[in-house]
Design brief:
Radius of gyration: 21 Å
Largest sheet: none
Number of strands: 0
Distance between the termini: 55 Å
Helix content: over 70%
Shape: globular
Strand content: under 5%
Structural class: mainly alpha
Length: 171
């Protein structure tokens, strides 16, 4: 049964906001379906995802009870009561965006020192490493298509993190 939609009078603010965002929702759905089809066709992700799950299990299992505590802590359950990975992913995106803006400003004007972009990029790398670690930790609980998507996402984000780490090293 589809979720109930909020009732509103024609011309009400709620209805206007809903109408304004409807085309975006449809385009997001089309994009999501396309990505889903592409990921579904990548059968090579299944054995790789299985390998990652076995590797993660191999890390935690020998640790016993402390391993379970560490896994819960990295998930965010202990400290926040909420998944930590989604919170951490915004920090590198923001820091790297700021680094680009600061690099452009430093190039165009002497008001911004070149080291400002370096610092923002470094902050992004540190946060990205934490996001990658918590992402692989949460990956342990995925199966089927969700695991295939998580494998593709994890590989891509790990590559991006490595590239930004190299960028920071070359600065």
């Amino acid at each position: 049964q589809p979720p109930r939609q909020a009732r509103s009078r024609p011309g009400s603010v709620l209805r206007q906001l809903s109408d304004r965002h409807e085309p975006r929702r449809q385009s997001e759905a089309v994009s999501e379906q396309l990505v889903d089809r592409i990921v579904r066709s990548q059968k090579w992700l299944d054995p790789l995802g299985g390998f990652f799950q076995k590797a993660i299990t191999a890390i935690y299992r020998p640790l016993g009870r402390p391993g379970k505590w560490l896994q819960s802590a990295l998930h965010g359950s202990i400290l926040l009561g909420h998944a930590l990975h989604p919170l951490l992913t915004d920090v590198p995106v923001g820091a790297w965006t700021v680094a680009i803006v600061l690099d452009v400003l430093a190039h165009l004007t002497s008001a911004v020192p070149h080291v400002a972009g370096d610092a923002a990029a470094l902050l992004g790398v540190v946060a990205a490493l934490a996001a990658v670690l918590t992402g692989y930790n949460d990956f342990h609980y995925t199966y089927g298509q969700e695991r295939r998507v998580a494998t593709a996402h994890g590989l891509l984000m790990t590559l991006v993190t490595i590239l930004y780490l190299a960028s920071v090293g070359l600065r």
